[in-house]
Amino acid sequence: MALCLAAGLPMAALAEDPIDPKSYEVSYDEDGRYFTEDDVPTFKIADDGTVDWLTFSGFRRYHAECHVCHGPDGEGSTYAPAIKNSSVDLGYDEFVNVVVNGRNNGNSVMPGFGENRNVMCYLDDIYVYLKARGTDNLARGRPAKKEAKSDVIREDEDACMG
Question: Quick check: 28 and 122 in contact, CB under 8 A?
């Protein structure tokens, strides 16, 4: 078995397990938000490449708040690791916990953003954007087409931002 010289690991250890489509398939929608059968927020990308509003908003919010450390499109940087797979690997509840409370694993520190409205009011948006990136359903860069923002999403944003 070949070794990965950079990490000293067998190449097989670097292979990713296939992502279960049920972890992101749309089961139902409510006012422009999409959910899996387990009631977890997810993305919707039409055949023509049109993304749902939250995924588009998540791209914008990620690049306003997160990419400074984690690099464009969740690909990582020399400062912080890639997080495009975080919403898939961690799942919704743990992803929210890390963003709200932060994490210190000894080698790196992720600050908590629980008091930052620019993150918290759009946390599901950022989550579904990273989920679309982490499942390889969304390419790098700004989505070219998006669904319209629903009135309910607009009202919720206004209420959250104050």
Answer: no
Computed over its alpha carbons, how large is the radius of gyration of the chain? 17
| pTM for this prediction | 0.85
**Per-residue b or e along 110-130, where b marks 16 or more CB atoms closer than 10 Å to that residue's CB:** beebeeeeebbbbbbbbbbbb
- What would the two tokens of residue 21 be? 């489509």
* pLDDT tens, residue by residue, 16-46: 566 776 678 999 999 999 999 999 999 999 9
Asked if CATH classification 1.10.10 holds for the domain at 25-161, the reply, yes or no, is no
Contact 41, 33 (CB under 8 A): yes
Q: Cα(45)–Cα(30) distance, rounded to whole angstroms?
A: 16
Paired with 34 in beta bridges are 29, 42
Q: Residue 155 and residue 150: Cα distance in Å, rounded?
A: 9
